[in-house]
Amino acid sequence: MKKAFIQLHIAIILAGFTGVFGKLITLNEGMLVWYRMILTAVLLLIILKFTNRFKLISLPDFKKIGLMGFLLSLHWIFFYGSIKYSNISVGVVCFSLTGFFTAILAPLFNRKKVIISELVLSSLTLAGIVLIFSFDSQYRTGIVLGIISSLFAATYTIFQERITRQYDSGTITIYQMVGGALGMTALMPIYMHFFPVSTLVPSTLDMVYLFLLSLFCTVFLYILSTQALKHISAFTVNLSFNLEPIYSIILAMLIYKENRELTPPFYLGLSLIILSVVLQMVKVYRQNRNALPLAG
Q: Does residue 230 sit in helix, strand or coil?
C-alpha cells in the first residue's frame, strides 16, 4: 500500500511538470502538442507491444476514441497557449475551471439534473478567476485561453467517461494519441497559416524536452497511475489528483520564481480556488467514506 501511494504521488508530481515543460519548450503551442501526441503514441505503442497488451479495435470505435484524442489536443493547445501568453501559475489556475464547466455541461449531455452543490463549489473557482482577471490585466490573454482550455477539458472528460467502460486505459490512451495526432496533422496547415514558424523541426534541446514530456508526463504517468489503481481505489486516486495545480504552482515558483510576478489579487483568487477544491474533496470524502475501507 505504501508503495502504491508513493507511485500515485510521483504521478501527480509528473502531471505538475507538464506546465513547466510548456514553458521550457520554445515551440508554439500547436507544434508542441503535435509532437507530444506523436511521441507519446510511439512510446506507448512500444510499451504495449513489449508487454503484449496492445489491442486492435474496430474502425467505428477508433473514430470515436480518436475524436476524444482530438478534443484532448485542442485542450492542450489552449492550455499551453495560456502558459505561453501568461505564466504557468495562471495556466493551471484556469484549468481548475474544468469542474465548473463539467457541472454545467455534464447534466446537459447526460440528460440529468444539475447538482446544485457541485455548481456552488465550482462557482468559487469561477469567482477566483474573475478576481484575477479583474485586477491582473497583464494576464488577460492567458486567462481567456485558459478558460477555453478548461471548456475543452470538461467536454473531453464527459465523453471520456463513456468510453472507459469499453476498453482499458492503455488502449484508450494510445488510440487517442493517434487520433489526436492525425487531427493535428490535418489542422497544422491552417494553424501554420495564422501562426507561421521558421522551421518545423524542433531544436535539439526542444526535442529532448518533448521526449521527457511524452515519456515521463504522459506515458510514465499513465503506468504509475495504473499500478496505483491496483491497490488504491479510483476515488482516492481522483481525489489526490486535485493536488496537481498546487504542485504546478509550487514548481513554477521554485524553477521560474513566478512568485515575483504574482500580485495580491492572484493569491486571493487562488485562495478561493483552493477553498473550492478542499470543500469538493470533503464533499466527495463524505459521500464515499463507506467505500474507503475497500481501498486497502
A: coil
